[in-house]
Amino acid sequence: MGEALETLSEEGFQFFGKVTASVTHEIKNALAVIRENAGLMEDLISMGERKGGLDPARIQALAGKIGKQAMKADGIVQNMNRFAHSMDEPVAELDLGDTLRLLAALSGRIAAMHGVVFETRVPDAPVRLKTNPFFMETLLWGCLEFAMVAAGPEKRLALVLEEVETGARIRVTGVRVAEEVEGPEFPPERHNDLHRVLGAEVRLAPSRDEIIIELPKVACL
Q: What is the C-alpha to C-alpha distance for residues 141 and 107, in angstroms, rounded to an integer?
């Protein structure tokens, strides 16, 4: 059990580190735009004072850009806050649709680096599971990382959530992994303990260009 916990901790720390690095980079980008536009606004005000008049339209345009970036940064911070709180409880009931939307949002910058666009398709009614939220996010992140690398030429990946009798099924569509072509191992062997703890089954369906994730209603924690 000690070795299993060590593996789970290592995967979790790597996941947390990647997400934190990506999110903080996005925040830095938003702040850089805010600083740039604030500087331009100061220059315009200074010029206006020297020349005896301001250009309201340009000031208003810069203020709009600053406000837009501030709202963007606020949304990023809110997502990061939700992500951080996923470690509050070892076992909790979660809405899997919300979890998928959160991960898609958190992976936005990394997806853009791969030229990939995510689309989430979830049922109107919540699909709830009793599980470890952070381990669940770690498992799903591993699948999304693989999918971003293995995305097909259209570079569009759909996260499709379905409620089934035993719990839930997630299909990540739009991957291109032929059975006869060698590539990165998926799912990786190091995720075996994670799958066992969550009671998850993860497999590739090359004939359908999908990753399929089967999850129980209650994880065997």
A: 9
pTM, whole model, 2 decimals?
0.83
Alpha carbons 50 and 76: distance in angstroms, whole number: 39
Q: Which CATH architecture has domain 92-216?
A: 2-Layer Sandwich (3.30)
Beta bridge partners of 158: 119, 173
Using one digit for the tens of pLDDT, what is the confidence trace for 155-178? 999 999 999 999 999 999 999 876
Domain residue extents for the chain = 2-85, 92-216
The CATH topology of domain 2-85 is Helix Hairpins (1.10.287)
Rounded to an integer, what distance in angstroms lies between the CA atom of residue 53 and that of residue 46?
Answer: 10
Residue 171 tokens read as 């299909």
Buried b (16+ CB within 10 A) or exposed e, 13-27: eebbeebeebbeebe
